[in-house]
Amino acid sequence: MSNSVLVAIDGSEGGNRALQFASDRAKLGGAKLIVIYVIEWSPYTFNTPEENAERHTRREQEIERATTGVVEPAAALLKASGIEYETVVRHGAPAETLINIAEKYDVQQIVIGRRGQSGIKTLLFGSVAGNLVQTSPVPVVVVP
Predict the structure, then answer these.
(1) Cβ neighbours of residue 2 under 8 Å, at least 6 residues apart?
(2) pLDDT < 50 stretches in the chain
(3) What is the DSSP letter of 70?
(4) 93-133 pLDDT, tens per residue?
(5) d(CA 141, CA 6)
(6) This prediction's pTM
(7) Residues of the chain by 3-state class (helix, strand, coil), percent to 5
(8) Residue 70 and residue 24: Cα distance in Å, rounded?
(9) How far apart are CA 36 and CA 8, in angstroms?
(10) How far apart are CA 134 and CA 144, in angstroms?
(11) Are the C-beta atoms of residues 8 and 38 closer than 8 Å to each other?
């Protein structure tokens, strides 16, 4: 297992706190950070060729927006701190995608911020953090 930590960011305050926590840990332990932004996406939404073409265009726009608006500013902070890092932007089911990337990079830990959402959606489908805690093969830190 590598000395690396996967940190999920999304531009929220919770994501920022997770990045700060992971940065502090990386500085102390010399860990490499894998910074990931997952764009929630279902592969089963569209069927027609026109809808798929539109979907492809939208996916490219979302990746560009996530990269320039969230991931690149986070990378600039890490670079200024001298922390080794890689960045990843993916579409998919958030918890499943985070686990797949954690396995790909052989990380020791996943760090995610708590968003504090409540309501019927969370009751029915659960939270990303809750799903990760129950299914991740590596320890998960949920930063409040």
Answers:
(1) 32, 105, 106, 107, 108
(2) none
(3) I
(4) 899 999 999 999 999 999 999 876 656 555 555 588 888 99
(5) 10
(6) 0.85
(7) 55, 20, 25
(8) 19
(9) 5
(10) 18
(11) yes
